[in-house]
Amino acid sequence: MIKFRVLIIEKNNEIKQFLKEKSITIVSCKDFESYFCDAKKQSVDTIIINICDYNTTDAFKYISQNADKSILVVNANSNLKYQLYECGAYDVMIAPIDKIELKYKILVAIKKSKYRPQKYILGDLVYEIETGTLKKGDKSIILPTLQNKIFALLLNGYYENRIIRKDEVFNSMIDESSRIQNHIARLRYSLSNVTSEQVIIETVYGKGYKLLVIDK
To answer: Which residues 6+ apart lie within 8 Å of 41 measured at CB?
Structure first.
């Protein structure tokens, strides 16, 4: 299963360093114009904005543009609270924040996320994790259960910028008597059926596999 993904927008990394959970993958950026702050492209589940680091007009604009996401604003001035809600924030924490309360709020959001379908935009593909569906335009396929699990594992590696070792795949889902190469070959064939030109499974010889998403 793909980990819950949190986008943190802050300049001092205070929240990022505090928030370390095995169930969470953190995407972080320092400004609203960064490539990484594109919540849709990063397929994040919730957004945390440390608003004391930014111009409020810029923050209001960003929140309004991403109101379809669950946005938690922290370190807010109490005078801004209702304006932030009106812009689309789902929750606001007034400075100074209680870090234990912050962690609780995020973990509650994780539990809620399990009850809604998750979609990930990967180059020219849309991946629906609950059904194992890969879509490109009017073409779509449903991955068999095992292929879907492997693809989800590779996607975790992509978001964490790391190689998925062969033993990770064996230990998590495949009997050691199976040949991982065969399963990867079948997954590559499934990707070719939707004619993806931007999503590639790369073999890193002697180490494992890595998912590549090529931007065009």
So the answer is: 35, 121
Instruction: Taking residues 200-211, report their average pLDDT.
Output: 89
As a whole number of angstroms, the distance between CA 73 and CA 80 comes to 10
pLDDT in tens, 114-135: 545 577 888 888 898 878 899 9
Q: For residues 73 and 82, is the Cβ–Cβ distance under 8 A? A: no
Across all residues in the chain, what is the average pLDDT?
A: 83
8 forms bridges with which residues in the sheet? 28, 48
Number of Cβ within 10 Å of residue 186's Cβ equals 15
Torsion of CA 79, 85, 86, 87, to 10 degrees: 100
Spatial CB neighbours of 207, under 8 Å, sequence gap ≥ 6: 163, 165
Q: What's the CA angle centered on 183, arms 188 and 40, to 5 degrees?
A: 50
Q: How confident is the model at residue 161 (pLDDT cuts 50, 70, 90)?
A: confident
Which domains occur in the chain, in start order? 4-113 (3.40.50.2300), 119-213 (1.10.10.10)
Q: Is 195 exposed, middle or buried (0-12, 13-18, 19+ CB in 10 A)?
A: exposed
Under 8 Å CB-to-CB from 136, ≥6 apart: which residues? 124, 125, 126, 194, 195, 196
Quick one: angle between helices 180-193 and 145-159, nearest 10?
90
